[in-house]
Design goal:
- The chain is of the alpha+beta class and 441 residues long.
- It has 3 domains: 197 residues, Rossmann fold; 73 residues; 64 residues, Nuclear Transport Factor 2, Chain: A (Roll).
- It has 13 helices and 21 strands.
- Strands 4, 5, 6, 7, 8, 9, 10, 11, 12 and 15 form a 10-stranded mixed sheet that branches. Strands 13-14-16-17 form a 4-stranded antiparallel sheet. A 4-stranded mixed sheet has the order 18-19-20-21.
- The chain binds S-adenosylmethionine (SAM).
- S-adenosylmethionine binds next to helix 5 and helix 8.
């Protein structure tokens, strides 16, 4: 028993072995409260957190002095920031080293939900790069999609596949992130369920699962490509020991010391040494070899009858190609179309580019995704709401507004889109998605 929490004896023993003299400081840090931190969306810039303390290893990361109610902040729902634990923002340092000139690359985030690292990667990548954000568990995949939609970028495809499915796409990705499912020791002070779920058997099981994931990731990594491996645990069997024989070359990070501890093959973050939770990261490179030439896909380049909708709703509409699936309409960045078609051939796609909306006979129902996209036009009919009305809107209720236009109208808060309403004959329907509505009173 430490403070009011019961930590498994076996866990404490293992930590004592790893930390020696530092064990007591570590245990003490487990009783302190977790710092609250957020990462700002560089595509939806706000001033609100500008003055807050910066996270030294992440340009858009900020510590907050206290934890506000994010639920009641419309700017949170607009996707202007993501609430994320600070240590895990360290992937930015790895990114900077392995892609210093921000070359266009194909990136895979293999275990992506709820989307912390995918939204971070999208903030760092240029528009010509493609992110395949994969999550195998269906309900977690849904949350991943929601978070990526809020981030508003278009150069992303969300897939729902098992790691072994990726072996089919040999030597395809330039950069792969495996933020592996793990025993979660680094989250003990934030997430008490992680303490209850911990056991030595679970550590062993996680380690077997991680080895499998790694094996399949290596197969679809290009020769010369980089693999970033991370966990939020302290267990050597889930970290360094996992990587020794995975066939990749370990890359040293040439970065300043922020408090991270160099281990044999990576870097470990401890809560008594850094303002953040427990985290592990290692960067590896696949040695050169034969590259695989991936087939050029044939696309139907005929102008679609629906491309007029791109022109009506999107900035830079010419940069997008229309793609339909049943009654759903997507806008895919033209320069990523070939990669998109390759991905579509091999994987189960849940989301791609910008989901524009649904075709219903002669009508077009613009999607919530389109409202939150960074590419939606700024001169569409819109109504700006105050805080109280914005919360009412986000509850899927009726704010006190009188739309001047009939038809689709964006709802904004402090200039950022929250969603759509449709005005008809002196009244309107609220189109904010029911599954995202605020329930808390
Ligand atoms: N990268 C995420 C982020 O930053 O928000 C967190 C990822 S979490 C540590 C690990 C993810 O792996 C979970 O979403 C989990 O559903 C998924 N997962 C669980 N078992 C898996 C498996 N066998 N193969 C691949 N992913 C798995």
């Amino acid at each position: 028993m430490i403070g009011e929490h019961m930590y498994p004896e076996a866990f404490l023993k293992r930590m004592k072995n790893i930390l020696g003299d530092e064990f007591n400081s570590f245990v003490q840090s487990l009783e302190e409260s977790s710092p609250t931190s957020i990462r700002l969306n560089p595509f939806k810039t706000i001033l609100k957190f500008e003055e807050e303390e910066k996270i030294p290893w992440c340009m858009n990361g900020r510590y907050l002095n206290e934890r506000p109610s994010f639920t009641f902040d419309p700017l949170f729902h607009a996707g202007t920031y993501y609430v994320q634990e600070a240590s895990s923002m360290f992937i930015e340092q790895a990114w900077k080293q392995i892609n210093p000139d921000n070359e266009p690359v194909r990136v895979l985030d293999m275990c992506a939900a709820p989307g912390g690292k995918s939204t971070h990667l999208l903030s760092l990548m240029n528009e010509e790069s493609l992110l395949v954000s994969n999550e195998v568990i269906p309900n977690r995949n849904k949350v991943l999609q929601q978070n990526l939609v809020k981030w508003g970028t278009a150069n992303c495809v969300v897939t729902q596949n098992k790691p072994e499915d990726f072996s089919a796409l040999e030597n395809f990705f330039d950069i792969i992130l495996i933020d592996a499912p793990c025993s979660g020791e680094g989250l003990f002070r934030k997430d008490k369920d992680a303490i209850r779920e911990w056991s030595e058997e679970n550590v062993a099981m996680c380690s077997i699962r991680q080895k499998e994931i790694l094996k399949h990731a290596v197969a679809c990594l290009k020769p010369g490509g980089f693999l970033i491996y991370s966990t939020c645990t302290f267990e050597p069997d889930e970290n360094d020991n996992q990587l020794a024989d995975c066939g990749l070359r370990i890359v040293d990070l040439e970065i300043q010391k922020f408090g991270q501890v160099k281990t044999k093959l990576g870097y470990q973050f401890y809560p008594h040494k850094i303002k953040g939770e427990g985290f592990y990261i290692s960067i590896m490179q696949k040695e050169g070899g034969e590259t695989t030439k991936h087939e050029q896909q044939t696309t139907n380049n005929k102008p679609s009858q629906f491309s007029i909708l791109n022109t009506q709703y999107l900035k830079q509409a010419d940069n997008f190609q229309t793609h339909t699936k049943n009654d759903m309409l997507f806008a895919i960045p033209k320069m990523l179309m070939n990669d998109f078609l390759i991905i579509e051939k091999h994987f189960y796609i849940r989301h791609a580019g910008i989901f524009m909306g649904t075709i219903k006979g002669k009508d077009f129902l613009p999607s919530h995704d389109l409202a939150l996209s960074n590419y939606v036009k700024v001169d569409l009919p819109a109504i700006e709401l105050n805080h109280e009305d914005a919360i009412t809107y986000l509850r899927c209720e009726s704010p006190k507004i009188k739309p001047e236009h009939r038809g689709w109208c964006l709802i904004k808060y402090q200039g950022y889109n929250l969603g759509w309403i449709k005005a008809i004959e002196g009244r309107f329907n609220n189109y904010f998605p029911k599954e995202l509505r605020i329930l808390k009173r």
